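Deliverable D4.2, example record:
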Amino acid sequence: MKTLQRIARGILLPLFFLVGTTATYAQSKGLASPYQVTGRIISATDNSPIEFASLVLFSANDSVPVDYTASDASGEFKLSLKNEGEYFISVTFIGYKTLDTTPFMVSEGRKDIRLNDFRLEEDEQLLSEVVVTGRKRQVVYKLDKQVIEAADFLSAAGGTAADILMQSPSIRVDAEGEITFRGSSGFKVYVDGKPSSLNGTAALEQVSIGQIENIEVLTTPSARYDADGAAGIININTKKGDTEGWSGMVNLMGSSVLSRNVDFLLTFRESDFRWQLSGEASRRFVLSDYDQHKTIITPELITTDHSTGIRKRHTAWYYLTSSFDWFKENTTWSAGVTGGYRDRWRGGELHYEDTYESVSTGEVTHGSFNGKDFVHLYESHWRGDLGVDHHFADREGHKLTASLYGLYEGGAMENFQT
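Output generated by the structure prediction step:
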């Protein structure tokens, strides 16, 4: 029965409000209601009157709305009705619980009824403590560069700088894992403002996320950087230990496809110098399904090729870096050495189904074959750096930087295809 009453309220109450204006106008023309119900709405907390509380008078037999009103500034209300019978009132107000009265009788002997005060209880919603956490934006756009905060990319945890930049709209990664920046692979990579000993993808894969503070993507490099970076400059700023004494961190990563990674950063800091040792050993393995449809149209022949199979990619790299910084008033002297080895191979075994259709005769022939390819690249590199940064005390934001570095790279590539 209660369910039917609720349904009736939901259907009839809006209709009642639509015709309420007409009913009120009819009453003002002389159709006075012989029965009246009055009362007062107050707060159960402090007995203060509640203004603008909504009241609807319902017939107790069929839950049809009969009259509605709102309480005034003193909490008083008045409802009118024409017929005797059994009724109840529903009272609602924002922030308070809905109150449905017990049914009461209106009859010839009870035309003017004064009800007891309606005491509305506050509708309290208890919440647990609210913690507001603020942090820097993931990406900050400046006039000549885009700054990406490494700490915000949790999905790339355990990865490298390449994994962060893959989420940037200007970066693209092909099926072989090679990275292009703004459509070109000719970009330059800098680490802490110094040219990396590797180029392109290899340089980005060398620096682990755990050691990165932020990455600057420079679309219009200044004269400070190598002019050869026509496609742009990517500068990786690494973390610096500023806590006096010993500090360090270690990151471990593993996956279900036998990828493994461990990197570390060890720092010793005193008031006027800082020494750091960092390194990484990583083996990444990528296994992917390959499915490609390709059509080549020439004036004489239409060739359709469908190739399927499995492709594999494996990358291993190992490096160790040691650096020393000496702080003297507004000048910082620095020295560092880095050595590393990178071993990478990729390949696949594919099955090809080809269809050849002659444009002139319409003759169709078919062919199929299996193919295998394998590319192996391994390289080593060594690098030494000397540098000095001087900040001008009387010119905020101005500094003089000089650096000298030596670089050795060596490697070989094997290519096999059938």
